[in-house]
Every structure is written in C-alpha cells, then in structure tokens.
Specification:
One of its GO terms (molecular function) is DNA binding. The chain is of the alpha+beta class. It contains 11 helices and 12 strands.
Length: about 300
C-alpha cells in the first residue's frame, strides 16, 4: 500500500483521478505510455513486497475525442485519397460513429476477440501482428494514417490478428452494422475491393522477398516500400523519415533476429547508403538503395483509402 500511495503521489492529477476511480487497467496503460516518461520512482519506494505484482497487459482503449467531419478530413488532401461525391461523403459521415484515441502500447484489436471493430487510423503508427498456436508471433504490417483496421474481423466475426499502437494514435470508429449498406454503394464497394487486393498483393510481395532474398535486399525493399507510403502521407522527406519502431519490431517485420538486423544496418552504413540512429532513418544514396532492392524506380501504384 505504501508503494502504491507513493506512486500515486508522483503522478499527474489526471492519472490520480483514473486510479482513484478504480480503472486499474487503463491506469497501467496510461502510466506506461505517458507518466513513466516524466518521473522515476525513488529507490526507497521500491521496497520488497510479500506479494508479487504482475504488470497488466496493455488494455484496449477507446477514449473518445472531438470528431472531425469527413468533409474536412485532413487525409483527403493527399493525392492517393480519391475524391468522393457529396452522397458518398454523407454516407461516410453516417458510417463513422466516434473518434477515438489510444496510447502507445495499447491494443486496438486483440487476437481471438469475438468483438469485431472497424477503424480507420487517423494519426500515428500501429502494427498488425499474428500469433500462431505454437506461440510464435510475427509482425505482418506497419499501419499508417488512412489504413483500414479490422475489416477481416467484421466479415468473419472473429479477430484473427492483433493491432497495437506503436505511438499514441487517433482513429475513426466505423459502425460495423452498416458494412452491408456500404457494399451496396458500387463506388465504395469497388474502392474497398481495390484496397483488399492491394493489401493482398503487398503482403504477397513482402512474403516473397522475406522468403527468397538475402537480408540486405529484404531491408532495402522494406525501407523503400515504407518510404513511399510515408511520402504519400507527407510524413517523410526524400532523404529519410522517423521510424518509431523498436529494433525488435523492425527485426520481426523483416523476419530477422536483432543481431542480424544490426549487421545489415552496419553494412549499409559502411557502404554510405543509409543510417538508422535514434529512430531516424537517413537515406544517403537512394539509387544505390534501389539497386540493392532490385527496384528501378518507385512504384506508381497507390492504394485508395476510405
């Protein structure tokens, strides 16, 4: 109890209210994602306790924030976000039922859940992972603003993968009950089909690269693909971009160990092609990077978004 009171005393008032209201799951997520950055518990407070406390798994959060209207959505300015008619925008506004926020580390979707959610990532980074029955987990996609989350769970009725926030994120929550209504609008149904096909093609290409190419080509292909997606969203410059992924998450996305990943990064740095330091990836020689990836130029295909 002494330790608990000591921690509360060091927290911000917003977190104190959450803890005292008894929402311990959200308290841990809030503390882990926000407060730990701002204080350290004094050594005297970390006394041994007769009871071992196991940290809770980051919770699924759905903090509601002010809901921007679809017509004023900042994502619509991007070239790959096709224009919509007034009728389509009106439907999308009805389709959207909330605007949520989750902190870094929290789950937007949890694998195995029987409660489907349909979201569009509005800001921040997230990762899509799948855990096999044997326990092995693999990062299958990095999610960026505009990406649709949870469609498979809505169509199948079960969540077959997890989605976790890498940074603090905001998202548009869509009404799962209206999915059939959306499919009855030919233009939106076609857009959704193109989105699914594009994602299937992207995943198939990544699987081929991971399975058939060496680690350098694998990393170069992943970097250029991510760079293009970020450029489309005005989240990267020609010379590079910020990568909030941990080394473990990045290695997982590439199917490598962290030791092997570090060797690859060292070889790129020694060749003067790129560096990755303090979560900032700097491309020093774009043409050489494309040559390693066996790509003659950037892909001209962009996936449409909802």
């Amino acid at each position: 109890m002494v330790v608990f009171v000591s921690v509360i005393a060091l927290c911000k008032p917003s977190l104190q209210r959450i803890i005292l209201m008894g929402d311990l799951t959200r308290s841990w997520s809030f503390l882990h994602a926000r407060e730990v950055r701002h204080f350290r518990v004094p050594a005297m407070a970390m006394v041994s306790s007769p009871r071992t406390v196991t940290p809770l798994r980051p919770a699924i959060s759905s903090v509601t924030t002010a809901m921007p209207r679809c017509r004023e959505c900042r994502l619509r300015q991007f070239g790959f976000f096709d224009s919509m008619t007034d009728a389509e925008l009106e439907f999308m506004q009805r389709f959207k039922n909330a605007h949520g926020r989750s902190w870094s580390g929290e789950y937007l979707l949890e694998q195995g859940s029987q409660k489907p959610r349909l979201l569009t990532l509005y800001s921040g980074w997230a990762i899509k992972t799948i855990t096999l029955p044997s326990g092995e987990s693999h990062l299958i996609k990095v999610l960026l603003p505009g990406d649709l989350i949870g469609l498979e769970s809505v169509l199948s009725g079960a969540v077959r993968h997890a989605v976790q926030a890498v940074t603090d994120v905001t998202y548009c929550s869509l009404d799962c009950r209206q999915i059939d209504d959306m499919l009855n609008i030919p233009s939106l149904a076609r857009r959704l089909t193109v989105m699914l096909l594009a994602e299937q093609q992207r995943i198939a290409e990544r699987l081929a690269v991971v399975g058939a190419c060496n680690a350098r080509r694998n990393f170069a292909h992943f970097t250029l693909d991510l760079h293009q997606r970020l450029r489309e969203r005005q989240m990267a410059r020609d010379e590079g971009f910020r990568v909030p992924l941990t080394s473990v998450q990045l290695a997982d996305a590439l199917g490598l160990t962290t030791v092997h990943l570090n060797r690859v990064l060292r070889s790129f740095r020694q060749d003067g092609i790129l560096t990755l330091e303090n979560h900032v990836l700097t491309i020093q020689d774009m043409s050489a990077l494309r040559e390693v990836a066996a790509l003659s130029g950037p892909s001209s295909e962009s996936c449409p978004l909802l």
